[in-house]
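Appendix B: a complete holo record

For completeness, this appendix reproduces one full record from the ligand-bound portion of the collection. The bound molecule is zinc ion. The inputs are the chain sequence and the ligand SMILES; the output is the full three-dimensional arrangement of the complex, encoded as structure tokens. No fields have been trimmed.
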Amino acid sequence: MKLYPDGLESRDAELWDAALETLARTYRTGRHEVAAAIRTNSGAIHTGVHIAGSAGRSSICAEGMALGAVLIGSDSTVPLSDEIDTVIAVLYRPDEHGATVRTIAPCGVCRELLFDYAPNSWGYVYDWGTTSLQPTLHTTEPETERGFSGSPTIAGGHARRILIRDLLPGKNLRDW
Ligand SMILES: [Zn+2]
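The structure of the chain with zinc ion bound, as generated:
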């Protein structure tokens, strides 16, 4: 079984593993579908998970949660922009054929946030390739346990490493 997505650089294998392990413990359909992992320049890895709210705007993305974890867990004398090396986000998606995992590109809000705090760090986007679009799943399951078991397969498509500042061409660097 394939362990890593096409396009994932070998230096980021641990980062993928950390995000996937976090998602395996926290996943809930419709609520906690994405986990993110950030590696700092000191080599530490911090993770965060998506928290959906019933009012869409109240939702918080995994990338923002991971940024907060870096802030809490890193040297207070080092600016985040000098601390963050790479961020990756992983999506778990069950369907009638089983379950897949893949990288997922930062949403527009996360692009803004990552650009503000770490424009020279690296992230991942996802190229669909020949993979067909997957339907969004909705559930009315009551809150029970979190996490998933088993070994999801790696979705088709391609993970592509990209500089965060290239996610928002033309956006001005924030001087803070
Ligand atoms: Zn986002």
